[in-house]
Records
---
Amino acid sequence: MKHTLSCVVTVLVFVLAESAHVIPGPPDPSRGATAAAPSRPPGEQGRGAPPPAQPGPDYNAYYQIGPDSLPHDGVPKGEVRGPFVLPSQAYPGTQHTYWVYVPAQYDPAVATSLMVFQDGQAFKDMDGVLRTPNVLDNLIYRREIPVMIAVFINPGRTAEQPEPTPAEWGDRTTNRPTEYNTLDDKYARVIVDEMMPVLYKEYNISKDPDRHGIGGASSGAIAAFTVAWQRPNDFHLVLSIVGSFVNLRGGDAYADIVEQNDKKPIRIFLQDGRNDNRGVGRGGGAYDQRRDWFYQNVRLMRALTDKGYDVNYTWGMNTHGQRMGGPILPEMMRWLWRDHPVSTDVNDAIERSFNESAKKK
């Protein structure tokens, strides 16, 4: 069954009047390096050469983060702990850096929910458009999502390779392309077999897969889906921003895979843009439908819908990046976690009050 997202319009219209600035997004995997254009002698443009390309519209101009992504006085702030280093057996010789968000409301005596974000450096970046710690602070405080631990994990790298950054997500410098874009179970082993046992030792996390979510952007989004697909007994909720369900390493096969296999207990929210990478590399070239991000996202949505999955989606005007996904991240989280327990007792004063910090014991 398809769900409409009426609240997205509100999020996109009633936003803070924040100055628009370009924020680095994930690398554009559909485009290779581009050589500088050779210089032309003066006047050659008038001798049959095409005129210089005129700048097109900024398709991201109207997407600005709203109040749910900003800090507010009186809202308890969670703590981002780390960085921690996780050696990998699934990818020998590599290690994964990760951070753990612990909400102010976390009580070790009460089992909590879990959300795991790929490309952790970007999702925890407080100068970007995602600013996930702020989103979690605000939504947990207002009881719009359950209390949850969140993990921000970077792609694997060798000890000699640099840590990914907002400017370089690691496609050229880490194991990111192999881990995120390959449709096998090796990255699921990193999350479920290597990281989860460490988290369970440190925090009281529920083992109910309905209380485990995983998400990402671009290649991190297809990686999140692959973890849930490979390990449906461990993760049921998936968040995808401009997901790379394309033929980088066979990801366009997912629509067919979904149709050919039994339905799995996965709930997913897909976001993409009409001006995402559209199957034509930088500088033109033949159109390749298997590398058309928007086409393949819509195709996957239809396969999931036809199969009866709990799927929500929204398509914007954005290019490849988080310029739309960031502002609607709060709404994506609300929808994914919408059925966390609530009390309808009119006399339940706790349910009707803000979710304050847990008392120190």
Note: Confidence is low (pLDDT under 50) at residues 4-23, 30-47.
---
Amino acid sequence: MKKKTSIYNHIYNKVYIYNKVYIYNKVKRMAAKAVLFTFLCISLILSSSLLASCDADNSISTRYPCQFIFRTIYHPGSSIETALQGAGTYTMISAKKVNGAWNIYSTLNDGKSHTETIVLSTAKENYANYSHLGAGNDLKDANKNGFILGTSNFNGYVAWDRQCLNCILQYGGTNYPLEWTGNRQSVICNKCKRVYSLENGTITSGGHGKEDKMLMQYRVTYTGIGSVLTVGN
């Protein structure tokens, strides 16, 4: 009887050990799969973020230098800040040094055709250099230079170079300023008659073919009324 019990105990112990090892290996495999799954998810998220970042960087033009800083706290209620408060509001911005101080020119798309002159009167403001605001370099009329800044309906803050890149590439030079047209949600080049949307920079009419280029875009940083606005590449 003792021998029979001993055999049963031996078999029981073997089965117990086998089950214990089996369960341990199964849990180990499941844990490994969970770790692998987590790693793949994290990799996918990081890859997506990196691609999104790269796409954003790729959309910013570096063909012409653009460096603009504006301390809105010194100029409350300016037309520049107005352009950043409502969708579909844009302004054309340029600059010129007058009597040792930088003057910023801003023309809203409100249909009034009024250009506001904002004098940077502090030493802190004039320490910056506004000579590089994109492609335009008309020395006689600074208002034809610079960029267009505003708030789009679906893409947040945007800044577009005011020059027609297609004419720059076709004819040379950089004196093809864009002007408001239609409901002033678009701009037109009077040289080639292309019309560009300020929402996304694409050509909406007057295109010449698949080789056409959209507007040159610059990066906008702005966190609200009273903050520092920067536009550049």
Note: Helices lie at 2-58, 79-82, 123-126, 165-171.
---
Amino acid sequence: MCVVRAQAHQRNLQLRPAVGASLATKPSIELLNPALVEHARQRQQSIENRIADRITTFSGSMRFVYIHAIWFAAWIGFGVEAYPYGLLTMIVSLEAIFLSTFVMISQNRADAKREVLANQQWATVQDEDSQNEELLRLSRQILDLTQQVHQYAAARSKGAAATAAAPTDDAAA
């Protein structure tokens, strides 16, 4: 089964530790929706997608924040360059450009997942609609048959009552 890191609040996902993971490791999200499993499998086919997924996973973590805080403090503390830190500013600006691109990639990935779910839900609605139409057709047939049985029973009871009330030839003789 394909195990993919995703956000825990997404629909149809259940938080479970990855197979073989200890309690100290970060739990993974196991995809339960077959459409999302297939989408994740197709996404894993491309090396660019795998790289982008890993970068966005790392850049969205607290480890990323801690590394940058240490890096900036060391840059300034060791006096790598003098104030106003032109090289550091340029490096951070380039990093921000690339990270914003990865954020857009991540948003596109989330949109693709939502589209997969929406398409699957629409197919389910269409299937349920056809099932409901079939159930309504069967219910109408049952109602028609029930009405016919009641009419037949009423006609038989009227016929039996009429024959019981009429004098027979044996009783008259």
Note: Confidence is low (pLDDT under 50) at residues 1-25.
---
Amino acid sequence: MMNEELLKTCADQNNYTIYTAFCKAQRILMRSYTPVCSISGGSDSDIVLDMIHKVDEDGKVKYFWIDTGLEYQATKEHLDCLEQKYGIEIIRLKPDKPIPTCVREYGVPFLSKYVSEQMMRLQAHGFQWEDEPLEELLKKYPRCKTALQWWCGERYSDKDGIQKISRFSIYRNRFLKEFIMANPPDFPISNKCCEYSKKKPAKRIIKELDADLDITGIRQSEGGIRSAAYKTCFSECKSKGCNTFRPIFWYTDGDKRDYEEMFGVTHSRCYTEYGLRRTGCVGCPFSKHINEELAIIEEHEPMLYKAAVNIFGKSYEYTAKYRAFVKEMKAKEKEEKKRDRLLSLSGTSACDTGGDSNTRSAVRSAVSADENAPEIGKGA
């Protein structure tokens, strides 16, 4: 039976999310014989570890951490502290291929995992970044349908023909298509570093330990493709294999703070001393706050900063160029709207007076882009 004092603490704080998460965790662990829990050394992972350790009365959960080849020294130190605090062993895993090797062999990550994957596919088929209808491009590159649909923002099927798409479209990143057409990448882009340095080693240890439950720290509120892929905290494996449990899936940032205060959870120096918002692969180009992170890394772990710039430098430069392009296009858009308002007073429009056709085309791009542009410091 779960410690009554534990549940009373949650009830006294009127946090139903944490209370029910403990109950679910205990119930799910009771049905598992060989559970494993991945540890990252980040703040979400710290809470998952604390929660699972509290309900793991039989001590059957095995914990593991993957060294991607680009990790903070503060994270490694934190793992030692966690082992001492909870009296556990955290298995250190080597990646199938470390990040530097992946980048050298496949290419650098750019903007997001999904964008990198689609650009990688297009590059593999010799795509020339043409702005042509989807039907024409499918004739030229018949084996690259998914990536071409992303590039065109359209989906094609024999039954329904051409249909617009929004969620898995290049237009989710504003002006990205216009930028790539104007500045085609002269280096390979890839998302393979995540696959070989994280996903494959995790699958490997699950198989080696014959695990029937994989516990991870994904939260719905963190957003992104990873959290959007799930609708609930538990995923049952359809065939004989390993189920997945996300114990803090429903936690908001407020719930995290409540849990830290209720149970005295402290985090690594990456948070308490460096001031990072997130940990993980050092200097990952997917970060929305990469400028801020690079400055922090350079100050606190300068050797890692040099390594990150050496590995991801082309991506940082290309991303910075993209952000500058977005800023410029937004300024043009603002000017055209202003001119249209003025001309509308006299009954004319920019279209009537030969307004910038490139700008008008770009304005049709969708959604928003992060203004945070990475910059590489001097001497890098």
Note: Strands lie at 35-38, 62-66, 90-93, 154-157, 161-164, 213-215, 234-235, 243-245.
